[in-house]
Amino acid sequence: MAKKTRSTKRKVVKVEPVGKAYVKASFNNIIISLTNEAGQVISWASSGKMGFRGSKKNTPYAAQMAAEDCTKVAYDMGLRKVKVYVKGPGAGRESAIRTIHSNGIEVMEIVDVTPLPHNGCRPPKRRRV
Hints:
With 129 residues, the chain is α/β, with parallel strands linked by helices.
């Protein structure tokens, strides 16, 4: 007997001209998400998704490529202005923001939301190389 193929309905996200951009730049990867004001993701990209592997994932060039891919999709859907929220210590923070701006989406505000400990947990022991 033949298997039935189920079609999944994609959730339709309402795209307004103003939204938010989240750039998470860790030591290993860069993830960029463009959302509407409600926080529903319009498009996303990461340097791993773009085909970079290993230590090349945390380079400014990889961040630039990921931001370009993500921005093109969102621009075509109607996003025009964003507030950028940057998190993490990675290398591609600035290049991702510059690429978002150069691809036609106006950057209105940049906010650093990197979490800082108020001397909470004990840090891991010192790295020996």
